[in-house]
Every structure is written in structure tokens, then in C-alpha cells.
Write a structure and sequence with these properties.
Blueprint: E1 7-10, E2 19-23, H1 32-36, H2 42-45, H3 53-60, E3 65-69, H4 102-105, E4 114-115, E5 119-120, H5 128-157, E6 160-168, E7 180-183, H6 192-204, E8 209-211, H7 219-224, E9 231-239, H8 255-280
Parallel strand pairs: 2-3, 2-6, 6-9, 7-8
Antiparallel strand pairs: 1-3, 4-5, 7-9
Helix pairs in contact: 3-8, 6-8
Length: 281
């Protein structure tokens, strides 16, 4: 497999802010076993990345605890559950299990099978033991670390907020389409006050914003968001044209503005969280 760390931790493992940040899809580590099994050029599967979303998070972070996945999403998708194994790719997928999700049917399961217009990306099926190892070495450590950090923040502040940072392709005409999508699983992963606060931040920055459509949040929000216990989780999708170059490959001139926007979002979440924590004391 690979001996390098599956994620990078920035800041203390025991958070000193109620806001914890996750960037699960910006990893650019493509292990040799992955590259050896591809049937498409490596450049084709970079379309699965939230390309340089980590640059926004790293630029915006101050005291917050931040987790950035190192491994590429094509290796394993941290925003899918361990059960979302693709029977068309993975020998370890269980037959007769629950109905396949729409994402899984489209080839975007725990280990993605397809990307964009490139079709199937693998030259062979994956052994169940291969995927088991990726779960054990990459998927579980990431989620365990996030859970521990959120529990620590909740114990310290009485509330914790997970901000899960992603990027998205343009949703349409940039003059009319949303450039930012906030997801809270339609209110299941976070209290409504957080969504409302972030919509106000977007307006202040003159960024068109949508809630839960077309992205309401995935496994990370489902797994870690528990508003009844004071742990809230929000997914943030940023239009890549706002911070990448014209080829959507490298950080572009808009990166600085997106760092500023994300910093405002983090501050708003912390400000919204702390009064609730103080009231509970």
C-alpha cells in the first residue's frame, strides 16, 4: 500500500475553536498501485479532485483545527460510507445488500469507478482485500480523527461545528447561477441558524448562494453532524472558477478573495456557535 500519512493535521488535535475544518477531496497523492491499475491517463482522474480547495482552507485557517486528506479521491472517497462499495469494480462488495445509491450507480462509490467523459478508469477489478486495506489505513483514521476533534471541541465549548470544504464545477451562467452551495442535509446535520448566518456572509461578499441544491452534503455530514448533541456539520461547495486559473488546474487570481470569504465564513460560524456555548454554561 503506502506508508505516507493519509491526511495532514494543522492546528491542535484538541481544538481551541468550536469550528473544525475538513478538506476531504483535495488530496494529490496518487499511490503507485493506483497509477499501475489505471486504464486512462493520470490527468483524466484529476477531475475527481476538489482541485486546490486545500489552498483556500490553509490560507483562511488561523487557530482552527484543520484536516486535509493527502490521498487522492480516486484512491478512496472519504465522503462515502464504508458500505458504498461498487460491485462492478470491487470484489469485496456485498451481494444482496441495500439498494445502490444514485452516486454508486453512476460510478462514484467508495472507490470511484468512473470520471467525467473518460468512462471507467480502472484496467482491472480491485480485490476485496485491497479496498479493505484502504478503508483501514485511510478512511477510518480520517473519520476517527474528525470525531475525536469534534468531541473535544464539544466538551470544551458546549458546541462544535464541522465545516466540510469542497469545490464544484460551474453550475451555469456565472451571472445568474449560484457560485456557493451550502449543505446541511436539509437541516439534518446542523441547526438552521448556521445556514442563515452563512447566507448573509455570501451576500456581504456579493456571491450568489444556494442551500442544499444540488449538493446537500454527503457521508461526512451524515456521520458527524448531530445537532441534538451540539455537533453541527455544514458542507461548503465553492465554484472552481472563483479561485483557479482558466484551465481550472492551478490557483488563480481569485484565490485571495476566496480565502477572505472562507475566513469570514469561519468567523461567522464561531460567532454563531459561541453564544450557544456560553448560554449552556
Amino acid at each position: 500500500m503506502t506508508a505516507s500519512p493519509s491526511f495532514e493535521l494543522y492546528g491542535p488535535m484538541e481544538p481551541i475553536s468550536p469550528v473544525v475544518i475538513s478538506v476531504p477531496h483535495a488530496g494529490r497523492d496518487y499511490p503507485l498501485p493506483l497509477r499501475a491499475a489505471l486504464r486512462v491517463p493520470l490527468a483524466a482522474i484529476r477531475g475527481l479532485e476538489d482541485r486546490y480547495a486545500d489552498a483556500i482552507a490553509l490560507g483562511a485557517r488561523e487557530i482552527e483545527t484543520l484536516f486535509v486528506a493527502a490521498r487522492a479521491r480516486a484512491w478512496i472517497d472519504l465522503n462515502r460510507s464504508e458500505q458504498e462499495r461498487d460491485p462492478r469494480l470491487d470484489d469485496g462488495a456485498r451481494a444482496g445488500g441495500p439498494p445502490l445509491s444514485a452516486k454508486l450507480r453512476s460510478g462514484l462509490g467508495l472507490v470511484p469507478r468512473r470520471v467525467g467523459n473518460s468512462g471507467d478508469i480502472w484496467s482491472r477489478r480491485l480485490g476485496g482485500d485491497e479496498v479493505d486495506a484502504r478503508i483501514r489505513l485511510d478512511h477510518r483514521p480520517y473519520h476517527a480523527a474528525i470525531a475525536a476533534a469534534l468531541a473535544s471541541a464539544r466538551a470544551r465549548f458546549g458546541v462544535a461545528v464541522l465545516l466540510d470544504v469542497h469545490s464544484m464545477p460551474p453550475l451555469g451562467d456565472p451571472t445568474t447561477a449560484p457560485r456557493l452551495v451550502l449543505g446541511d442535509r436539509f437541516g439534518k446535520s446542523a441547526a438552521a441558524r448556521f445556514q442563515g448566518r452563512l447566507e448573509a456572509v455570501a451576500r456581504t461578499h456579493n456571491i450568489a448562494c444556494a442551500a442544499n441544491t444540488p449538493y446537500s452534503g454527503g457521508h461526512i455530514l451524515e456521520r458527524h453532524g448531530d445537532p441534538r448533541r451540539g455537533i453541527h456539520a455544514i458542507q461548503l461547495e465553492i465554484d472552481r472558477t472563483l479561485y483557479l486559473d482558466a484551465a481550472l488546474d492551478q490557483p488563480g487570481p481569485g484565490l485571495k478573495a476566496m480565502v477572505k470569504l472562507l475566513r469570514s465564513i469561519i468567523d461567522a460560524l464561531a460567532d454563531e456557535a459561541i453564544p450557544a456555548a456560553l448560554a449552556a454554561e
